[in-house]
Amino acid sequence: MRAIYKIARLELSNLFYSPIAWLVLILFVFMTAMNFTDVLWGYARSQEFRGGGLSDLSRTLFFDMTGRGLWPKVTNLLYMIMPLLTMGLISQEFSRGSIKLLFVAPITSRHIVLGKFLGMLMYGVVMFVVLLVYVVLAGCWIESFDWAAVLTGLLGLYLLFATYAAIGLFMSTLTSYPIVAAIYMLALLTFLRFVSGLWQEYTFVREITYWLALDRRAGTFINGMICSEDFLYFVIMTTMFLGFAVLKLQFIRERRSLLSKVGRFLGVFVIAMLLGYVTSRPMLRLYYDSTHTKSNTLTQASQDIVSKLGGGLKITTYVNLFGSVYNITPAKVMTDIARYNSYIRFKPEIEMDYVFYYYTDTTDGYFQQRFPHKTLKEAAKEMAKFQGVNVNKYVPLSKIDTEVDLRDEAYRFVALLERESGEKTFLRVFQDAQRVPFETEISAALKRITMKLPTVGFLSDHRARTITGDRNRDYSYMVSEKLFRTALINQGFEVADVKLSRDPRLLDHLDILVIAEPMEPFTDTELDMLFRYMESGKNLILAGKPKTNGYLKPLMDRLGLAFEAGILVQGQDQVEKGRADGPSVRGSLPSPGSTKQEVEREYPVSLYLCKVTDEAKDLSRLWSVLYRQTRAPEWPYAIVMPGASAINQVEDKGFQVTPLLIGGDPTGWNELETIDFINEIPQLSTQAGERSGVKTTMMALEREQAGKQQRVVVIGDADAFSMGEVMANRRGILSANGGLIMSMFEWLSYGELPIDTSRPNPIDNTMTIGAEGAESVKTILQWILPALILLGGVLLLIRRKGK
């Protein structure tokens, strides 16, 4: 051990007696200081200008992976500078001939390698002290600084530095030319960065090449997570390359056959791969999430779901070569599996399987145009060539048709979740920017096969709005559209189309019934069935529309409620005020000099904008979110109702009544006379029975009934959660109607769905340093500190030369 320490100390002194080590250190300090102080100064200035508004500063400064964080920048910097630092560790000994002195000294090859490696680690400590200074300064200036997460990232970077040092040390044993050693190391690092994409279509080597990949290992630490697999990866890889270096020096001192040399190298490699395989087994992994918000860990709701998944669980992903929306190739299997790592952590026995097949409708016009005069198999070969994959890895649909029916999923990319006990469900991809399912959707699918979840029925008798139609007035998109992320079926709900005339017994299997604007009266028999449903204590949504509210009156009478006659309109003062205040309320600004009479309304006054009531904000988690959105001081959202009725309580039927939505305009009224809201300007007429004031457009009712906590929602506009309104985009109006849907069904499902995957808000949101102070720090760290290091290096080298 003493010999190793002496060699390390000598190596460290040699490093600081060479210009390259000083230049690398100066470059490292300058680049890291520039990145750190630029972000620091930018946020200090933003805080002063805006008076706050910052969030999650620890992540932003250090471990933000989108490009601003310091730690990801350091990984790229180490990738570039480590070949320069390590290229002469052994190669210079060869070129100068001093290696012979080491060989005749009473030390072994192991002493030489470990001594030089320890010297590099000591030099790394000097570099990382600079990074630690940044951490300490940030901790002093950021309130509630996330010390644990930031220091975890620093640990990962040092482990990366150590692995780079071991690789560089081995490469320097292969040649007597330092620059060649640097090129060798750069080539190997590049290989280790991209090896995870090599030979992934071969199951036998897939896990080996994916495990070997170096690029993602430090990222786990940078994100604030310590995983035993990643920690041991650095240990194994560092030890393996040090072992290679020892063997290389030993073979110079000893005469051995080529077969013997290759065998020993392979032996070290095989042992390392076996250790890597064992330590990467899910059941042997240990985790520690050091972030304050536990952003690397499943939320408690998801953990509770996984804990109830007794027995085995298999996830089979079906990938169509001709698939649309989203697709992967066999080379991306391990990357796709990584999306489930958070679940595998809590249920390591999850079995993952991938089935690659090809199928498309050969009678479709697009197929004939894209693949003229070709059979399906010939088209598959052409498509495989286009995607750069081996068509032999894909099987025809006929070979998997007996296993699963993919017709309802339109043969798109889909995962089948199946428990050992037989329960199964599909997990889909979505037609949005993100495409893949996130924790909310994955946990909802798992919950669906774990327990019975609410079934929502939509009454379609009497031309009521339905989930099977594709008109703007219908609800199919937000309920049963498989490509829509927040559709009820993708959030765990079971949905059903209900026709009393076809199957009245279906009501018995529902948990929530939606009756939205029937266009004809119910028969007495149908009303009896609906009354029995209400008296059974099950939940209900009634959605009306001004011209057809009469058909819901028998049901409203049972609730003690009534729709107010007329159509709600915005007051004229509110319309003109919105136009004058700016585009955030009603539209674009009027042209300069326009009179009040010359300003044209962009939207009819019957487009009623609503906000969440104070009473509703504590109703549930999502109602609280919706309340904050519609009450935001700047750019508030609104629940948009294009033609709504007010709702009044006319009798106490034993319900606890809570108003949910009210009009945003206290001067609005129920218009009874105007029919054409485009060409006519309605006027308040008290003689006609019109009354202005704050109007309630949505109510929640709750009572104990038949041993259940019955919940009912009544809304004065069935359009508010229709396909047409949810997808509407009006200039100057921020709509929160999509959030209204989830808020309603969250409350009606007693918080069961959608899954609550929200996390605690970051607490490191305030800086105590101002813009002027940050600018001074920028000057000191970015310019003065590198200059002092440069001066120290010059003086030391001059002194060395003088001696």
TrEMBL record:
Query: Which Pfam family is an annotated match for this chain, by its short name?
Result: ABC2_membrane_2
The residue ranges of the ABC-type uncharacterised transport system domain are 454-546
- Alphabetic keyword roster: Membrane, Transmembrane, Transmembrane helix
Any one of the GO CC terms: plasma membrane
List residues traversing the bilayer. 12-33, 70-91, 112-135, 147-167, 179-199, 231-250, 262-280, 780-798
Example GO molecular function term?
A: ABC-type transporter activity
- Give the region (Disordered) as residue ranges: 576-598
- Protein name, please? ABC-type uncharacterized transport system domain-containing protein
Q: What is the organism field in this record?
A: Butyricimonas virosa
Q: What is the lineage of its organism?
A: Bacteria, Pseudomonadati, Bacteroidota, Bacteroidia, Bacteroidales
